[in-house]
Protein 1
Amino acid sequence: MSEAAMTESAARPAFYFSKFEDRRPPDPLPVSRPVELVWQVLAVLNLSLGAWYIGWRWTSSINWDAAWFAIPLVLAETCAWFGLVLFTLNLWKTRDYPLRDAPGLLSECTAEPPHTDRALSVDVFIATYNEEEELVRLSIRDAKAMRYPHPIDVTIHVLDDGRRATMRQVADEEGVNYITRDNNQGFKAGNLRNAMEQTRGDFIVICDADTRTLPTLMERTLGYFRDPDVAFVQTPQWFYDLPEGERLCDWLGRKVGKPGRWFGGAVEAVFGEIRVGEDPFVNDPAMFYDVIQRRRNPWNAAFCCGAASIHRREAVMFVALKAYASAILGASEDKRFRITRLIGKKADPGAQALALWQAAQTEELTPYKFHVSEDIYTSIVLHQDKSRRWKSVLHPWVESKMLSPQDLLTWTIQRFKYAGGSLDILFHDNPVTAPGMSLGQRLMYLTTFWSYLGAVWNCLFLIAPLIYLVFGVTPVSAYSRDFFAHALPFLIVNEIAFMFGTWGLSGYKGKVSYLASFPISLRALWAVLNKQKIKFPVTPKERQTGNFLHLVYPQMAIMAATVLAFGWAALALGLGIGHYTLGGLVANGLWGLNNILAMSIMVRAALWQPENEQ
Amino acid sequence: MNWRTGLRKGRSHIIFAVALAVAGLFLIRLDDEELAARQCLKAQPCAQPQVPQRPEGQP
């Protein structure tokens, strides 16, 4: 290493993630037609068994003596089954858009030849607010290292909403453009709009402060834009800083010596490699990008997630201008009516023009809607545009790396934003019922919204065993052979079906984290129903220190209540108090155990500390 | 991806399915035993000692 390089390297701060720099992203899940066929057969069987079970629940199993409990539970089960139908449709098949050669000229990406043909121009936006400057420097350097097989005009812009002289200095040192503004209106969406006003690139690469693009991003994604209807390409987000954890045998060996190592080794021999402390916040987005989003490609319903996406400027501006024009027309009608009332005669062309002018003054052109989920909003507006039928693409290869939330507080803020933003769209601008989208697109957006509403029925699934264990009240007429004959085939086939549906990924952590994160979604739902504005706090990029147990009080309460209730029910059964049965006790005890295991993942996350802090 | 890797990654589903099957069978057995016990209680004779009855008229 040269002396200058050594000096520079010494001057640069060492981040916690510096040791992960050499990590390489995983390849996309391979597509196997036989596995897909097995999944589809099992999925149909699963939904049929589910329908059979739900039908039986409604017609033959409800304990009418406890209707206050039995009816909400069977409703919850029905909602969960409907969610299963939607999720099955989402996962039905994988059909990637074909990769196409990187275009050399603008004319290769437009429906009509441009006035003067030229090389493509790309603006890379790195949006920042208060992140460490040296972190942004890393993102700038990686953006500069992107390659392209043809001449191309790439300009990197640091969009600094923090108005920092130090950030400007870093941009100058790196030779990239620096853009700022005198306010923070619209937060990230406003920041992007401000940059769009000052730039002219044909395509826009959107990056957060910590988005580290890989050299291949442009050469592998711009080819999709050869189809002139493709509006944006989303690439998978990959967290390269996830803790790898420790092998169970090593961990037990460290804790209890040789016997622990042997025991751990024996367990791993049966169940395969188990890692303790791996991805404690269940941040791994592979399930979301590689399965859920990727399989929306056949429906043309993959949505934009902000960072690591590439947008066609024409598409974003096209729908923004249309929305702007219709907003002005809508507003001007109202103004025209008021003018008519004021001047007491029918609106003349002058009054009409005045009304339009006034409306144009008050409405704003927002290429990216000023909303906490501006990325989903943009996707919705594009998918709704009937005149162009814009397409979205989920490119399956990872083309950038980024940082994951490193503590429960940051994780909670991020999940609350996702849930609140999505539910706010559902309740105030529901695309499922609004005109414009195809049936498939509506169903895919409904899948997303339904998953956030799932917190409501998940709550019932957490409380139901508690009600039995405390009061001895059953929601079904009996925990009989008949009940298990209907429930078990469905539950077992469901597990096997989703093993094939998500072949190559472990689904357990995602499943339990979905169940355990119910307080976040419930809070978001409450906020939206109460018309509270979902705030736009920037997700911290550094680990927050402190005690985060207060964030998991609801989960801890469920765990403690389940254990106590089980103790009480066992005692009551022994003493012959109430209407407990051994079958009911065991069934609800196991259900409660499942809930406890799910909740424990969040409690462990609250207590998690990185190795260097332990 | 070979089958072994796929199964290893999806092991949580297999474990859960096996746990459900075992627990379900156990609960069904419990229910059967309870049902049998209840039927026994209803039909009194099975609760009484089995003494061979002597045909009427015989000493």
Note: Chain B has a mean pLDDT of 77.
Protein 2
Amino acid sequence: MRRASRTIALLGLVAASAVLLVAGPARGQDSAQFEVIIVKATNDGNSMDTALNKYAHLLKGKGYTNLSKLGSTAFALAKGAARTVTIVGNLKAEITYKSEINKRVAFKCQITKGGKAQATVNYSVPRGGKTVVVVPMGSVGYMLIIHVR
Amino acid sequence: MDNATRLEIEIGRYVDGEMTAAERAAMERRLEAEPGLRRIADELAALRPHVAKAVSSSAGSIEAERLWRGVAERIAAPGRRPLGTFLDGFRVFLRPRMAAGVAVTLVLVGLFILFAQLTGGKAVAEVTEIEYGENPDVVVSVGEDATDGTPIVWIDGIVTDEVN
């Protein structure tokens, strides 16, 4: 009986060590893929981009009724690296991949105008998830849809 | 106990003065008849003052007092164990059932961590922190899409004269 228990204990310890070795450290990937879609929102009667219909309800509260895609960009970032995306003119968004914890990508999106920081939003996003940043500017607004993979 | 040992004990009692008068008289008669026994008794008697001196000096020393005080404290507090060394923590593995319990617990904890990593915790994105920049007019508000829980961040207060 004692011998059997001792064997079970030994096997258990080996199994526990193996599981902890696999699960212990945050086994994040070294890079993350970002896709940023830039959307322009207006209320001037321009036609709605049908692909953006699903986002229309987010902007109606601000009086924007029409959405049009200005462009999109996709890029990969290593940990600590940053990429600047131009929204319009000197209004830019800087995306920085910070780290990955438990399969979630931690990154920040800093909105700058004329090189000056306006606001920085820090996110924790599961791979495959997305976030939306809206910058209303009177009759025109801009929306960033950021997909993380 | 053989006769020789018993005899030595008896001589010791004689030398230490622990015998009754009758026993003492009988022992003295025997010592007179057997010179070998007399020699043993004399040797024991010669040792006696040295032993007494050693015991008294030891009993009176500070170290001896500390030792006996420590022993008394340990006896008085049976539930208290002295702090062990680092290796004492591994004594649990000398008890197979307890070691098996520890092993099973470790496996369960590891599996839980593994499960949490594989499932990735909360399925949707989260805003973890907002930092304001140099523009005091900026106001940031956070909501979420009612359909899929995607966080929506509104950054109001930025004015631009450039319209695309």
Note: The longest strand of chain A covers residues 66-78.
